[in-house]
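[agent] plan:
  1. take the single chain provided in the ticket
  2. run structure prediction with default settings
  3. attach structure tokens to the ticket
  4. add a short note for the reviewer (M.T.)
[agent] executing step 1
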Amino acid sequence: MRQNKLLLTLVFALCIPAVVLVAFNGAPAQANVTAQATATVQATAVPPAAVQSFAAIVSPGSDRVLFLVLNLQPDGQAELVADTLDDNPPVTQEGVWKENDSTVTLTLTSQDGRALASPVTLVFARNADRLDATEYETATYGDRGLFFTLRDRVDEKISSTPRAYVTLDLAAGFPLDPFFVSVNGGGELDASALSDTCHGYIHSNPTVVVNWTGAADMVRAFTYSDADPVLIVQTPTGEFLCADDANALALDSQLEIAKPAQGRYRVWIGSAEPNQLLPTVLVLTARPDVKLSNFQLGDLVKRPPVPEENSALPASTQTNTVTDAIARFTGEVGGPLGAIPLTKQVSSAGTVAAFDMDFDAARCNGYIMGTPDYVFEISTAPTEFTAHFSSEQDATLIVVGPNGGVYCNDDSEQGVNQNPAVTVTKPETGRYAVFVGRIEQDTPVTGTLTISTDPNAAPAALPPSN
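[agent] step 2 finished; step 3 output follows
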């Protein structure tokens, strides 16, 4: 992506909706002049004490575009710089300016130090921080209008735009690391208005605003997409950090901030060309091992796709697969449960989606068999019992009581142990059915099922894989 040679303001593209790049042909000696009715501020302007720098974008024709910078010096000198954003150098025209009753008259007399064949005059109406041309050369600047905006309003306009498409409150050590959010990148405003190190086109509003608290050694932000997005971050101090292609093989962008300061970070996802819409995932992480080169969404969510309907059976019939399990069971019944734990080796290749079943308050997970993996009996009710399953694979557990009550568990300790455990307090006497579920459908889950009255009973440790 080519870097623009001039620092432009964010509001350029608000003047001309669509432009195409070509070369600037210079100022013609003969001028076509147009007059436009423009409302003006009534107050008489006071001559400024410092240079005023304005910028504009114009499209003189269907195949031409110019980026313009107008500098008005306090001593009455003026210069108008035109850049075609190609290999040709910018063209600078010099002259003088004066203001009377909010009417600014610009007279250009030379170009790059050489006198013009005849002076060129442009007349503007001052409207707050804008100059709206009422008389100008249509052959050079086009007939769509010519409007200049103060360049030093860029940071002010950004700071006054609190809205973002997504706002995040993140603190150092945030548990969902990496954190990622799906966004649309691209826009119509030239990002070089923010910094001469920025490229691409962005929307006026930030894509994401991050309110950061706490201390971290590093925070990394990168895009994950099938496109060519650019990444721009404004730090709490107002500095703009910009990134384009991460390397010769990666069109995604990546930024790293060492010891990020607390405060608000504005993030823009841009596009290489104007008015593009780029579906993109923005990834934020404080983990040194997570980076663009090794990030894969498939590593974070591994379960297979879940159909909207598990089968043609009514929901009540699917639920009966579990609640009526004891009545349908014809195998050997274990127990009765006492001080010595009951154990059984189980291999489950279930295909019935427990998460599709309605058990009122219970929320179950995994794919289970159509019949229980184990049934045991309680003849003397203990204070409580725990059923747990130890395996090298992520599994789930469902326990069904004598009266059809359902108890479920996925991970015995969320984020620490993926082996499941279900504890039932004040259990009734009678028979209990246990289903072992699997998360991955491509392989059976195998392990040891244990039923124990020990209050400290727990499955073997199975830490999360990531």
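[agent] step 4 note for reviewer: Confidence is low (pLDDT under 50) at residues 1-47, 153-162, 309-313.
[agent] ticket updated
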